[in-house]
Amino acid sequence: MIVGNYKVVTTPTGRWRENCYLVRHVPTGDLVLIDPGDDAHLILKAIEDEGSKLKLIILTHAHHDHVGAVKAVCEKFQLHFYLHKDDVKLLNRAPTYALAFEKKIIEISKNYRLLGSEDLVWGGEKINLMNLPGHTQGGVCFHFGGIAFTGDTLLNEFIGRTDLPGADAAALANSITTMLSALPDDTLLFPGHGKPWTVATATRWWENQQESACEYREESDI
Q1: E strand or H helix at 97
Q2: Could you tell me the CATH superfamily of domain 2-221?
């Protein structure tokens, strides 16, 4: 998919069909990789097909289905990756969760840097980020040039799970409201699972969800 100066290549990976995104800055050919979750061979093939000019690897959060291929890609391109400081503990636990949920063994790279420690610039463009706790403590949204990558904070007509360690339903609701209020209506949202949608569409859906929740609470109080 082409959006302005960017080409977004989506590679669904693993059992949960997690969306790994490869974004090409068309004028320069520089690439950024977001959430390499599984199926490293598919991700590496996508990078090769786009010219192999990989500059950055970044994570929206550190659940095991979003980090399983990080080590392989880092080693292939001799790069470190970036994640939020509040998800480092979750990253270290990812192999345990992968084994528990999927009976799958994954290895985690320790070659990371913390988001916010330096500007993320690729293809001459700065990647902006918002901290969005709730699904995980260190969940983030990356946005630039009319596109945003929301991880599992907000999916297409669905919100991220809050029944896992470190999750917080109230914080997630606040993060979703904050994110949608901050981004222009025509921003295209690319979620961690499922199809993209616009901020305008997402906002209408989210407001309906909030109204339904309020009506349910009012009826429960009767």
Answers
A1: helix 88-102
A2: Ribonuclease Z/Hydroxyacylglutathione hydrolase-like (3.60.15.10)
